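User: Fold this one for me? It's Glucose-6-phosphate 1-dehydrogenase.
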Amino acid sequence: PLPDAVVIVLYGATGDLASRMVLPALDEVRRRGLVPEHWAVIGCSTEDLDDARFRDHVAEAVRAGGAGEDNTDAGAWIERVRYAGGGFTEDDAGELPQVLTEVSQQVGDAAGTEPLLVHFLAVPPGAFASITRGLGRHGLAEGSRVVFEKPYGTSLESFEELDRDVKEVLSEEQIFRIDHFLGKEGVQTLYVLRFANQLFGSEWDRSSVEQVQIDVPEDLDVTNRIRFYEETGAALDMIVTHLFQVAGQVAMEPPADLRDPDSVNDARERVLQAFRQLDPAQDVVLGQFEGYRQIDGAAPDSTTDTFAAVRLWVDTERWRGVPFLLRTGKRMATKAQRVTLVLRPPFGPLAEEMDVPNTVQIDISGDGEVRLGITVKTPGPELTYSSGTAVLELDDVPGGEPLSPYASLIHDVLTGDRSLFTTADGLRAAFTAFAPLQGKDRPVPAVYAPGSWGPAEARELPAPHRWMLGE
Ligand code: BG6
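Assistant: Here's what I get for Glucose-6-phosphate 1-dehydrogenase.
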């Protein structure tokens, strides 16, 4: 349930992430009536602003984020916004303590109860530890919930170090680590589809599924984030984070209780722990699009990967021998986000004739879609077959009104539901499985043409099938 009152402190409040994602999502949550009656937001950053100027910034971010000019009562929530300058670190808490005391008092008086305190760290990961220590040092941690953006660690070692620092101040239950893919409607539908439908539930294993593809090609460029990208690359940016978590969502064993966050998190953790370490020699293709090294800010001999495709093995009884094919890249032919279960051929009288496999596809972009690739008789006089696709758009589901991933996750922070957040044990397992790609055996990225489907070497990974998206 929602608390009666909440105060949200947004660190990095004037930064890109806050403006593009967090503030518009907060507005979406508000418009949908998913906030407590009493709430306030304090923006915190190093910039020298006053309340009025920060409110302008919020209004602009909300407008640009899609709410538009007709968001008539945005004014009402602008009143709830305050600004605390001077930054916030371990050594110097800036203006925050003062502003927070005032705001908490106001909100608390109106609600007749002490507000829940949420710290939202929309800051570069380098600042996570210092801000968290600051929360401890300045007495702001107790009873609060703390939201961390991605990436929470960039290797097993850096994850362990960060988590050790954070755990000196916070307990795991207070920590909400965002992986916005888990907030996508299509990803949330995955386990409902499976556990609420015998049709899928009974087929969801190696006896019916031949392979799983999780395919996230992007046509985006990286020019405007080249510094981040040079240090990160496609595999670290997408595979060990978003695509591993989605793979966990597909592959988990049934949680004891789908409404109990601990039970869902346990199930996802356990399956992540069963991910076999990637084998760079056999199961990994990295790529770099032609022209990447000429981007201003890229090293002339950069080996950063802008494309990554891996064959992941999940060592559970359910999935033994079923490859999970994960692919993503920048400047590819198109933008899409699709999970596909490729089903085994049928038994029986038509078995020999079927050459297009049945598929269960979940489109996880936008509002999400469930698509079934099935074979039917080609209408007409002859007994011949065609494969077609039945599509259910999730925003057509009666009574449904999709939420954006960030809005969905912010709502879960407010209600205290951690089931769609990554856990320490889950991330530890993910970084462990991924570690061989960060060592001496990491393959050299192969060059691919911008606008293509990546290096030729990646075509063979799904054999005997092909990538379901693509040529
Ligand atoms: C981000 C990655 O986390 O996710 C980006 O850093 C990627 O590289 C993005 O483009 C994809 O997000 P979305 O919202 O398009 O699914």
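One thing worth pointing out: The radius of gyration is 24 Å.
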